[in-house]
Give the backbone structure.
Amino acid sequence: MRKGSKLIDRKEMNAASLLASAGMNIGLALVVLSLFSVLKKQPCSAPVYFARRIARREALPLYPAFSLARLRPTASWISRAFRITEDEVLRIQGLDALVVLRLFKFGTKFFTVCSIIGLLILVPVNFTCQDGHSRSEFSYSMDAFTISNIGKGSNRLWIHFACLCFISFYILYLLYMENKVILVLRLQHIGNNRQRSDQFTVLVRGVPLCLEHKAYGCCVDHFFSKHHPFTYQSYKVVHDGKCIRKLLKLAYSLQHKIKKLRRKAVERPIKWLCLCDTFWLHIGDPKVHEESLQEVRQRIHLLQHENIINKKELPVAFVSFKSRCGAAFAAQTQQHIHPLLWTTEAAPEPRDVIWKNLAIPCHLLALYRTGIFIAALLLTVFFALPVTAVQGIAQFENLKKWFPPARAVQIIPGLSSFLTGCLPSVILNCFIYVIPYAMVYMASLEGYISHSGKQMRACSMVFYFLVGNVFFLSLLSGSLLQQIGESFTHPKDFPSHLASAVSAQSDFFITYILTDGLSGFSLEILQLGLVTWHVVRTCSFGQSIENDSYLFGFPYYRVIPIVSLAILIGMVYAVISPLLLPFLIIYFLLGYAVYVNQMQDVYDITYDTCGQYWPHIHHYLFVTIILMQITMIGFFGLKSKPGASVSTILLLLMTILFNEYCKIRFVPTFCHCPIKVAKENDDCDEREGELQANQEIAINAYHPPWMRPVSFAGDAAYMKPLVSSS
């Protein structure tokens, strides 16, 4: 059996590569941020940089006339981002957006304290240690500032253990306080939004068919009238709308074409701007499309009535209650002895519902999710190929052995430093960019009934993908198969293997943080792809600037996992390589400023779960703490300090117990609305005379898109409601 105390496979940190990476990323960030500050002042780019404000008909802070100030880069957007208060974010963007911003603040606070400890205590302890290698051996290396410079059995390792304990207890304290603060904010936010219809509504699935009437609606009414006689108010059964969805898509497409043709007939674009002017000649007269649109509208209206007449109902219903207390009680209790019949849960917001997924039977959801889990696992495995290739570039000495022509790179001064210091993290970030979109697509196939549930699932998929590929595969790619095989054969040696790999890859992760933070956040705020497409669309196709803005929902599934990965990397290296920590402070400060700007001006907040993202973030942070402590167990073992290893195991157990306490103390209130809070909000509504009005809002809120009245521009014939509340 292999011993866990093998020597660390050292890969010295090349200062030249790190300086090359830092210089490239800082330079690119300054250029990109300067370009953004100039482009944001131009009226022609407003649909990209003020998409949210345009959609909400808000005034734009643009210069009315041309001036030199429009061409001068400024940092006013950064100062504005740090002036905004949490109350403003909570009122305008909602609690989910505030949770994301507090994650950036959390990282800033944590790594500021860690940087002080690392730079004032750990770096001097590491550098002045004489137990390790000779000073000349580190003359061109940064390993002298890391724990790798501490010799085996050195008592200085107890200083590292003390710092590990402080860091662990500090982050647990921060986590506990964040849980308390966000929980209070959640309950306050629920109370401040008492008009929300989801507080009175329960989603019921697995409704049995009424054998007498061959319908689901009467069964819903009978069941809740009998078992919830004092709180039940009304119901809405969801209808099947497959064919209507296709016709609606066609109708909106025809309407869009008609608007284009009318606009082009009034304002023909300048010939030299409209390169594709002849493309529009074959489209024809708008009247032809108007006739087609009228036929489609009539067909939609007929099918909507047929859906009701033919009882094309699904075994799903939205049930409204007379009080929040009654809805909360029904959502949190089992309604039937058969757990797949009359299953109830708190309804999502009407704008958050994925209506087509309501047609998926409950008993098939497990099958759907198993298939997507296998697909995500296969994607993770296949992604090992580009990660291994990236690490081949990063480990230039190995690359020269595998591919001798690579020695020619050394002929050009500084090129090898660029290749090993900057290029690997750039390539890796390019590959990673597409992963969140692939994961959110796979999550959409799992049958989640809400966009928020789908994106929370995508968050977890992306996070574990990044942990498996970016973190573990980047660490183990040097001898991937051998080390994975040894970890399975001798699982007790896993901490030693992990510690060895972490020590060898610290420089790569410094460059990764630089690239993802400085360059990644800068390109995020520049919106390079959208700006390029906007220019092409405006100049080539003759689209006017006042047209549609590029409005998208906030990408929680992309932001939260990537930021959590940065915290993971920083935490693992907090004691091992403290020089990484100051870069993380810059990472979180810049990220905070960027996403405040994006939330205010660019992205739309399409739903608000009242902070239900936080338990997921708490779980990701718990995983990072566990990995940090497992790594340090291996490090102390490799450094022949068994006492510190055993003590770290006790620290690990305390962390697990803390997480279990948080699950019991905080998670249930994030998942459900407490009966006490619901009753207090009902009493408040009764005192203010708003209870009946809020009940009416809830009764009329849940209409699937294909059963809503069809109303296009200039159409008044189809405005009569089709479905009335029962």
Observations:
- The first helix runs from residue 15 to 39.
- The mean pLDDT is 81.
- The longest strand covers residues 313-321.
- The CA atoms of residues 464 and 709 lie 43 Å apart.
